[in-house]
Amino acid sequence: MHSHIISHINEISKKDWNNCAGDLNPFCSHGFLSALETSGCATAETGWLAQHIIIKNDNDEVVGVMPLYLKNHSQGEYVFDHGWVNAYEQAGGRYYPKLQSSIPFSPVTGSRLLSDDQEVKNKLLETAISHGEKNGISSLHFTFVVNNEIDIMKSQGLLQRQDQQFHWVNDNYRSFNEFLEALSSRKRKNILKERRGAVQNDLEIIKIHAHDIKEHHWDHYYEFYLNTANKKWGRPYLNREFFSLLSENIPENLLLIMAKRNGSYIAGALNLIGGDTLYGRYWGATEYHKYLHFELCYYQAIEFAINEGLTKVEAGAQGDHKIARGYVPIQTNSMHWINDPYFKDAIKKYLVQERKAVGRDIEYLKGLAPFKKQIIKP
Fold first, then answer.
1. d(Cα 66, Cα 194) in Å, to the nearest integer?
2. E-assigned strand segments in the chain
3. N or C: which end of the chain has fewer CB within 10 A?
4. What's the confidence (pLDDT) of residue 372?
5. How many CA atoms lie within 13 A of 21 on its CB side?
6. Neighbours of 76 (CB within 10 A)
């Protein structure tokens, strides 16, 4: 096997990349990464210089790939290392640039060692570490990694970090009403109240999927996205072209849930459909209506997942208000290679305490779940 590094996802064919990435997670697909890089959202100019690793066998066939970026900041990652930056630089070190194996602007768990072959997975990881060592990079970060890659990374000396998100888990519900029946009476009544309240004032909820999504839908949706981005971050990560490219690249994975009032779109939420998961992303509105955010982002997503037989809904980062709406705390994991042995030792000690704190938080939040039986699936 031999490896090489490419500086743009389009230097590898869609077929070769997706043969390694599979079709379960649309964020790992060639189409999603191409939309980010081609639109200019994830480029050297924005601090995301692609360094994707490609592994080929002796027949020159692509057998493994890794999404990887060289970064000069820590924005758009959702696993926060600003404290690490300050500590290392105060000690005289240079933290940036760093290597980041993740999907830009997407706190979504997925494979980072994209191959079905264990030997190839090891080769991908070894290549990434070697790339960091040869270039004097301070650190290499794999964020939101799947559980079955943790042991491989630990065997190469990477440190495990834990956090949490809130996911809705489908317990083989046949309808939204059956899901409601699994909740305590008080929580069930509250959700019904919110759903009724969300469609007052002549609001109409519309689902738009795949090739039914047109450019005028994206025009309205992008206005909603900007409104939220400007309130939260001050600068939006994504531009208008990105969404058009998504429609070109992965239309069947897209679901827009929009709200209309008096014939005009006033709010929307974008979802990506995976093999067994609905991924909720990017909500926004130009008018405030009580409960509308819960309806578009949570209840409509749950209803869609039940109707389509999907296993779960991932609704993005943060938000313990999701618990009352049937979402449960789920542990997320990231893995970190630290070049400096002294800095690595300090980080290792810190992570022991952080993991304990995260574990306590998850156990506490599990107790707040609204179900009649307090059973939380992993």
1. 43
2. 2-6, 48-50, 52-56, 62-66, 69-71, 98-101, 139-142, 159-169, 203-209, 254-261, 264-273, 277-285, 312-314, 328-338
3. C
4. 84
5. 30
6. 22
CATH 3.90.1150.10 fits 171-310, yes or no: no
- Distance from C-alpha of 225 to C-alpha of 218, rounded to nearest angstrom: 10
Q: b/e string for 169-200 if b means 16 or more Cβ within 10 A?
A: bbeebeebeebbebbeeebbeebeebbebbee
d(CA 135, CA 130): 8
Cα–Cα distance, 247 to 215 (Å, whole number): 9
Residue type, 143: T
Residue 231 pLDDT greater than 90, yes or no: no
Per-residue CA distances from 97 to 135, 139, 183, 188, 192 (Å) = 10, 8, 48, 49, 49
The answer to whether 2-164+330-366 and 171-310 have equal CATH topology is: yes
Give domain limits for the chain.
2-164+330-366, 171-310
CA distance 358 to 327: 17
pLDDT tens-digit profile of 312-345? Answer: 999 877 788 899 999 999 999 999 999 999 999 9
CA–CA separation, 328 vs 325, rounded Å?
9
Considering the chain, what is the average pLDDT of its residues?
95
pLDDT tens, position by position, 13-31: 999 999 999 999 999 999 9
Largest CA distance in the chain: 64
For residue 299, what is the DSSP state?
Answer: I
- Region 146-173: mean pLDDT is 97
Domain formed by 2-164+330-366, architecture: 3-Layer(aba) Sandwich (3.40)
The pTM (predicted TM-score) of the whole model is: 0.95
Identify the residue whose tokens are 């890089």. 37
